[in-house]
Design brief:
- The structure is a single chain.
- The chain is an alpha/beta fold.
- It contains nine helices and eight strands.
- Strands 1-4-3-2-5-6-8-7 form an eight-stranded mixed β-sheet.
- α1 packs across α8 and α2 packs across α3.
- InterPro entries: Methyltransf_12, SAM-dependent_MTases_sf.
- It comes from Streptomyces crystallinus.
- Keywords: Methyltransferase, Transferase.
């Protein structure tokens, strides 16, 4: 297996084909802030989504730091020496994990070479380049390339693998004794606007959520080896032999009035919504969305004083027995 260590540009990855990456996600299933993919999402231009992936992950970084501290507190007497970040994308969380576990080597695992290059460049800028490396591969085919780990972080990437239980079993086999799997899956839908925004029928974001959930279900159904699972993550983790399941949710709260960078990210997220499900909206909702996206409209996202960003991300953990 080839990998990269340190500097961007020294890429010599083993690869099958395009892989998994998903931590910048938007609604309760964790896609749409989104970048993980299986075959059902292979036509996405993930590098073109880089501003969305990085921007939203940075907005959620406080929650991810809290999650990393919580995970570390579950095993204070166990040294974390090697971490796998499954579906790392451009490496925002990869670098947060390297900061949270200063003795650990952190391996960004993704199927997109360009995004892995961004992950390495970010690590270099933050002075973490000596402890961050990458593996370009797709799961489940690439499990044999990953090596063992003390912590496996899968940030909204598991749901892009058809057989989630089999993938969890693969993670479990990679854990060292006492090691932890941490899944970022689910939470609460992101909200950016009041229920009643003064135009159209109240509840626009809730109706958009329904369309995005339906799109997610179609994506899941189209994945190779797709198997339906009840999303009881603790039960799934223990079903593959892991112990001590735990779940905690972390709040992301950027109240109005928003800083310009946060507002830009909200506008970008709604633009993605328009691209992905806009043609499925009712004529009334489509007209409202068009006004929200119009930078000249005083009622649009660019000018509204009531725009905010509120979400919760759930982290599910379990460990291998010592």
């Amino acid at each position: 297996m080839s990998d990269t260590r340190g500097h961007e540009g020294r890429h010599s990855h083993d690869t099958t084909h395009r892989g998994t990456h998903a931590q910048a996600q938007g609604h309760g299933h964790g896609h749409g802030h989104g970048h993980s993919h299986g075959h059902g999402w292979a036509d996405f231009d993930w590098e073109a989504l880089l501003p969305l992936l990085v921007g939203e992950a940075e907005l959620f970084s406080g929650a991810y730091r809290e999650a990393a501290a919580w995970i570390g507190g579950q095993r204070p007497d166990t040294e974390v020496r090697r971490i796998l970040d499954i579906g790392s994308g451009p490496g925002v969380v990869t670098c947060l994990l390297a900061e949270a576990f200063p003795q650990a080597e952190v391996v960004a695992v993704d199927g997109n070479r360009a995004l892995l290059g961004h992950a390495l460049a970010r690590a270099e800028r933050l002075g973490l380049g000596d402890r961050v490396r990458t593996i370009e591969t797709e799961l489940p085919a690439g499990f044999g390339q990953l090596g063992e780990a003390d912590l496996i972080w899968a940030g909204n990437s598991l749901h892009h693998l058809g057989d989630q239980r089999a993938a969890l079993a693969g993670f479990a086999r990679l854990l060292r004794p006492g090691g932890t799997v941490a899944l970022a899956e689910g939470g609460l839908p992101t909200r950016r606007l009041p229920r009643d925004i003064g135009m159209g029928k109240p509840g626009l974001e809730a109706r958009i959520d329904v369309l995005v959930d339906e799109r997610f279900a179609r994506m899941r159904a189209e994945l190779p080896d797709a198997k339906e699972e009840t999303e009881d993550w603790g039960a799934l983790l223990t079903s593959v032999g892991l112990v001590s399941p735990a779940t905690r949710s972390f709040l992301v709260d950027h109240p109005a009035p928003l800083a310009p960078a946060v507002r830009d990210q909200v506008v970008y997220a709604f633009a993605r919504t328009s691209e992905t499900v806009g043609d499925q909206l009712s004529p009334e909702d489509a007209a409202v969305l068009a006004r929200l996206m119009d930078p000249r409209d005083p009622a649009g996202l660019t000018h509204r004083p009531d725009v905010f960003l509120l979400a919760a991300r759930s982290i599910h953990t379990a460990r291998r027995a010592t």
